[in-house]
Each structure stands twice: as structure tokens, then as C-alpha cells.
Amino acid sequence: MQPEGRSMRENILAAAVQLFSEYGYHAAPLRDIARLAGIQAASIYHHYPSKQALLVEIMEKHMQQLNSKLERILHEYHDPLDRLREAIANHIRLHTSNKAEFFIIDTELRALEGEHRTRIIAMRDTYDAMIQEILRDGMERGVFHPSDVKVTSYAIIALCTQVSSWFRPGGRLSVQQVIDIYYQMVSQGLVRVPEHKDEQKREESVRT
């Protein structure tokens, strides 16, 4: 039984997401996707020309969502800490609410062919560049410690992506609580302490 109100194209895409995430792209034949969607194998070609087209649509749809939300954050927020907080929240929310889709994006890039691979990599690079813009801006304004922008961006992205591997809805922590914890960890590692506070800490250390 397929969910009411969902088109056959959506049913097929949902079946592909389930099988690609469970077994991998290459181990999920179109006939199994069609069976799970409730149609004959030959009928799938009325909606998608190939299995590759399914993979591309999954990746494009969710990378576009990730990028467009981060782009909006960059336009709506100007304080580096606000931008960092919202960027972390955006990444964690999308990766925990669309776990299977982003797992496919993270693990099946090698399965993309030709220009499809080039296009998805370009979208990923755009996302990386926006995270790096947040960090570079914060460093140039003296809010963040000077550091290697690329390495720092990769570390933050990997840290936030990993949440989806262990987070369980209904568990001890809500998504927002996890976001708050991760923002605290990341910001404490990045934010510069004003010089007068450094001196105060040194003086307190000497007195003790």
C-alpha cells in the first residue's frame, strides 16, 4: 500500500531512496524499485528513463535544498556567530529529517556518471564555499580565531553530518538540543577571547 495523495513518480522515488540507502545503488535493480512502488518493471520507464535518473534526482533535490537554505541564511544574517549557529542548525536539521537521502548523497557520489557527477560535485563545492565564507568573514572581523578556512569548514561539515548516524527521534535529546550542543562546541573552538580577558586569566593563574 502506497501513501494516499502521493503520485506514482513520488512512489518510485521513495522506493529508490529506501533501496539505495539499504543496499547501495549498484545492488538495487530497477525491478525491485518498481515492485516496491507497486508497478510493473516496464512501467517505471514512463516516469524515469533510467536508474541513474533516480539517483540524480535524489541528489539534486536535497543538495539544492541544503544550498538554498544556507544561501538564505547568508542573506538574512550578518553577525558571524548568528550565521554559524544557523548554518549548523540547517545542516543538522536536514540531515536528521532526510537521513536516507543524505546518506545516499554522502556514499553514492562515485555511482554518478559523466556530467551528472560534475553537476553534483559543483553543488557540493558551492555548499563548502558558503561555509567557508562564514568562517572567513568571522576571521576577518576578528570574531573567530585565524585558522585554515578549508580544513575548519570540512571539520564542521563532517561533525554535523555524523549526527544522522546516531540521532534517533524520540530519544533523550531533541534535534534542537543537539544543535545547541554542537553550536556550543564549534563556537567555543572558534571564537577569539578578547585580549583583556586573556590577561585576566593569566593574572588569576599567577595568584593561585
UniProtKB/TrEMBL annotation:
Keywords: DNA-binding, Repressor, Transcription, Transcription regulation. Residues 29-48 bind DNA. One of its GO terms (molecular function) is transcription cis-regulatory region binding. InterPro entries: Homeodomain-like_sf, HTH-type_TetR-like_transc_reg, HTH_TetR, KstR2_TetR_C, Tet_transcr_reg_TetR-rel_C_sf. Residues 6-66 form the HTH tetR-type domain. The keyword Protease does not apply. It comes from the Bacteria. Pfam families: TetR_C_24, TetR_N. PANTHER family: HTH-TYPE TRANSCRIPTIONAL REGULATOR RUTR, HTH-TYPE TRANSCRIPTIONAL REPRESSOR KSTR2. This is TetR family transcriptional regulator.
